[in-house]
Design a protein that fits this description.
Length: 473
């Protein structure tokens, strides 16, 4: 579709300027995504800043669609009364074909690992898929671009999920609490909705933990299609309440962790699928966290009508997502260093407990982000103090907050923690103090390759820095 074609589509609009005979490749409401082939959506009933428009114009923007004219503007303007309605009509014209199935996975922890496992199950079985989440945008597991949001904006999500020609893709998306609350799945039909777990996170955004819980659950009770499938973790504290709501709506459920899908690890490893046990000879479970994420991914795959045998045959080929349980062997000390994204109290507790046995506790490098959920710092400090041995408190992404204040709170609740502000120095010191057969967990950043300090994004990669330190010691 060309910009000039919009004259015929928006017949009752006020068009200022001459629309060019140039192809529309993307519709965006964010100035970061602008090119000469982008139609920029400006809703002046929301928090719109003219600086965003100037930024877009500097990127060769030629046309905007808005709900109120802007004076002294050098670009073409399409002014419509009902902006949301008209933009939806347009994206449906440009991207008329929906994915074969749309899967959305929410939860405090495990979203990235679960979607990563599910996408691999699709690829190995030659089932076309698209994936979007914390790690970026992927087509058949091939990365095509980065992302700044776990769940993209509604416009971005819709256009990536849908296509201009009929295709056979399944679409898999992480669903953050922000994304659900901000209605980013609006006008998107979800066929399979899963929830991994719910624990403390994002209480700087949500008014209370109850509101956070209800937001997560609404993906299943409000966003899921009436003939869709809900995938639920049996360990959820609200499981009975969710089950009752879904039964009242006559929505099909698959429960993992017990009942429908779960691993049995006695003398041999088995996978239970709807009451039938499958012996797993070539596959080994690494830890409890991997177990739960895999069970969720398998349940989603079953909801997508992937046959059990096809799922089982590729379990041994699945790899962990970047920054999730990434292991580096430090042969000099016969030790292991684990890089993980654990940035919530629950995730931190899980990974520390996973590497604890008898009286052994792993060592830990950790911090907390700035300008975010300050209430979880106390919990993070208490978890570290209880489940870790040698502890090094350092900076995470302090953003515009004074990192000293963040470390002070962590130190208050984790008094045995040794404070080293510089993250690189903290990692170096922690590695240098490893004992033989020790384990060190570097938590909080995982796949991230930067630190956010004030208004700067500084290159920083826990994995790469750790590898370099080991090579020098």
């Amino acid at each position: 579709m060309l910009f000039s074609d919009l004259n015929k589509i928006f017949v009752n609009s006020n068009i200022i300027g001459k629309l060019p005979k140039k192809k529309i490749k993307f519709i965006s409401d964010h100035s970061n995504n602008i090119t000469a082939n982008t139609l920029f959506v400006i809703n002046q009933k929301r928090n719109f800043k003219l600086s965003y428009l100037h930024e877009a114009i500097s990127k060769n923007l030629n046309t905007i669609i808005t709900n109120r004219s802007i004076e002294n503007l050098s670009v073409n303007q399409i002014i419509v009364k009902d902006l949301d309605k008209e933009v939806l009509k347009l994206v449906k014209l440009i991207k008329p074909f929906r994915p074969k199935l749309l899967v959305a996975i929410t939860g405090t922890n495990g979203k990235t690992s679960t979607t990563w496992f599910l996408s691999q199950l699709c690829k190995i079985n030659k089932i076309p898929s698209k994936l979007t989440g914390t790690l970026g945008y992927f087509v058949n597991m091939k990365k095509i671009k980065e992302t700044k949001l776990t769940t993209p904006s509604n416009l971005d999500l819709y256009q990536f999920a849908h296509s201009t020609i009929k295709q056979n893709y399944n679409f898999i998306s992480e669903a953050s609490s922000h994304g659900i609350h901000q209605n980013r799945f609006k006008n998107i039909k979800i066929d399979v909705a899963a929830i991994t777990n719910i624990s403390h996170d994002h209480l700087d955004y949500h008014e209370s933990f109850d509101e956070y819980v209800n937001t997560k659950i609404s993906l299943l009770t409000k966003s899921l299609s009436s003939n869709g499938v809900a995938v639920i973790n049996s360990q959820l504290k609200k499981y009975k309440m969710i089950e009752k709501k879904l039964k009242n709506k006559k929505i099909k459920m698959i429960t993992y962790g017990s009942k429908d899908v779960f691993f049995i690890n006695n003398d041999n490893l088995y996978l239970n699928i709807f009451g039938k046990k499958y012996k797993l000879d070539k596959f080994k479970l690494e830890n409890k966290i991997q177990k739960e994420n895999l069970e969720c991914a398998i349940a989603c795959a079953l909801a997508m009508k992937i046959k059990p045998k096809k799922i089982i045959n590729c379990l041994s080929m699945l790899k962990a997502a970047p920054g999730r349980f990434e292991t580096i062997n430090f042969r000099k000390k016969k030790s292991k260093i684990i890089i993980d994204y654990a940035h919530t109290p629950d995730a931190l507790e899980n990974i520390l407990k996973n590497f604890s046995y008898n009286k052994f506790k792993p060592s830990l490098v950790f911090g907390c982000g700035g300008d975010r959920d300050k209430l979880k710092r106390r919990k993070m400090g208490l978890v570290a103090a209880k489940y870790a041995n040698k502890i090094y408190i350092t900076d995470d992404n302090p953003r515009n907050e004074n990192p000293k204040n963040i470390r002070k709170i962590l130190k208050k609740y984790c008094p045995k923690g040794f404070e080293i502000p510089n993250r690189k120095k903290a990692i170096h010191y922690a590695i240098s103090r490893l004992d033989l057969n020790d384990i060190l967990i570097i938590a909080g950043k995982g796949h991230e390759k930067y630190q956010l300090i004030k208004n700067k994004k500084i290159d920083f990669d826990d994995f790469k820095i750790t590898k370099n330190i080991i090579s020098e010691l």
